[in-house]
Design goal:
- The strands form two sheets. Strands 7, 8, 9, 10, 11, 12, 13 and 14 form an eight-stranded antiparallel β-sheet that branches.
- By secondary structure, this protein is α+β, with helices and mostly antiparallel strands.
- About 35% of the residues lie in helices and about 20% in strands.
- The chain contains ten helices and 14 strands.
- It folds into two domains: about 140 residues, Creatinase/prolidase N-terminal domain (Creatine Amidinohydrolase, Chain A, domain 1); about 220 residues, Creatinase/methionine aminopeptidase superfamily (Creatine Amidinohydrolase).
Length: about 375
Amino acid sequence: MALHFSKQEFLQRKTKVLQSMKEQNLDALLMFRQESMYWLTGYDTFGYVFFQTLVLDIKGNIILLTRAPDLRQAQNTSSIEDIRIWIDKDGSNPTNDLKNILEELSLKGKKIGIEYEAYGLTGRNTLRLNKSLESYCDIEDQSELITKLRVVKSPEEIVYVKKAAELADLALDQAWKYAKAGTNESKILAEMQKIVFEYGGDYPANEYIIGSGHNALLCRYQSEKRVLSKMDQLSIEWAGTYKHYHSAMFRTIAIGKTNSKHIKMHKACIEALNNCEKKLIPGNTAGDIFDIHARTFDELGYNKSRMNACGYSLGSTFSPNWMDWPMLYTGNPYKIVPGNVFFMHMILMDSDNNLAMNLGETYLVTENGNERLGKQKLDLVTL
C-alpha cells in the first residue's frame, strides 16, 4: 500500500471531518471531489471522470463506490477497506447502487451532505442523484466542508509543498537554459517537465502555460508552438508537483533585447507583488490582498492590463486544474491563517502594444507573516 502520509495524519483528518459533520448536523457525507478522497484516505486515481463517490457516515464508516478498473487502484493507494463496484452496462445507473449503500447504513430519512462542486459529478449524474435521493433523505450542498479543512496544510503536507517548490525552481533553471532565439517552445516545455520527473515529481493538475510573441498574452495553454525569434517575449506558468501538491511560478522572459515598456511593466509587477506579500499575513482577508494588487497597478496606469483576481490557494489537486479554494479577488472574506499556501500572480497584458509581463510566486503563510517558497531571483531576465 503506497500511502503518502502517516496513519496518525489520516486519523486526524477523519476526526476533523466528523467534527465538521457533527457541527452541520450531518448523518453522512457523499464525496465526489477527488481531492477530498485523496486527502481523507490517500486514494489516488483519475477514475473520478466516471461516477464515483466516497461515503462517510457519522459513525465513521467509509465505503467507496467506483468502477472495476479502480478496485485495485483503491486497494493499492488508500486506506479504504470497503470498496463496492457498480457494473458497466447499457442503461446502468450507479445512483441505485449508492442508494443501496445508504440503505445499508440506515440513512433513510437522515440528513446527507453532498459535494456538488466536483468535476467528476456531471450534470446528468447530478440529475440522477437528486432524483434517486429526493424522497429518500434530506440532502444539502456541502461542497466546501472538506475544502475548508484542506486549505490549512499540516506539517506533513508542508514537506511536500516545499519539495514541489524545489522542483519548480529546477524547472525555471531549464527554462532559462533553453529559452533563446531559434528554440521551439516544445523543447522548453519538454526540458522543464523532464527535470520535474527526474527529481521525483508528478504530472501537474493542468498543462504548463507557454506562449511567445502574440501568445505571450494568453493565460491558458493552447497547442500552437512557436520558434522564438531574435526579438521576442516568452511567458511561462508552471508548477513543481510532488505527491499531487503544487508550487506554481510565473515569468515573462525577454528574448534578444529588453523593451523599455517591458522594464516598466516588470517594475510594476515587482511593486505589486511586494505589496501583496505585506498583506499576506494572518488576520487579513483574501480580498485585502487583491485590493492592494489592484490599487498598485491602477495607480501605475495599468488598470486595463491587470486581471480581476491575483492568485489562489494551492495544495493537492487533480486535473483539470491546480487552482484551489479560495481565490484572491475583491471582497473575498476568507481570513488568512497560518498553514495557508497561496500562489500570487501579477499579470499585465497590454494588447495595444502586444506586450506581456508576468511574475508569480507561491507562499506559505506563517505565524508572523509568510515565506516565499521559490528561491529564484525575481529580476527581469533577458536571454
